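Researcher: I'd like a structural prediction for the single chain below. Treat it as a standalone chain; there are no partners to consider.
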Amino acid sequence: MQSVIQKIEAKYRKSQVVDVRPGDTARVHQKIREGSKERVQIFEGLVIRVSRKGSHTSTIAVRRIASGVGVEKTYLMHSPLVLKVEVTKRSRVRRNYLTYMRKRTGKSARLSGVDFDKEAVNTVHDAQAEAEEEKLKEEVAKQAEADAAKKTEEDAKLEAKAEAALKSHEAAAEKAE
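Model: Treating it as a single chain, here is the predicted structure.
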């Protein structure tokens, strides 16, 4: 019998998440809201920490160098804002927390790669997330359609106004003759 807490946690968990390990190079697709607009931001870097893997609060810390500055972001794997996580490269490491990678730059920051099946690792069917992504695409398409309709309506009004001005100008020219 499940406790009340476990039932609530199960409600907010994703059905499947990608198996991400420390040492992986991952690409995280995150939904970002700026004012009334939403967009998807992709952050690619080295996974230096994986915490609470079996829990609904499981997190990954991803690090990359951007403009000569190290940037680390921590993502909740079951967050609705994290749309997709792709593992692009898998490396052989013997630690769970790769904090020593923060001090390394250049060639010393390289990790030896390991062959793995990208499709098997990255294939996750989350119907809810796919439906939400499809919904976002439909909203963008509807918005674009509405904008196009509004623009054609404005163009038609301007054209009618121009024709009316031309007719009145021609009528005034005929009276003057």
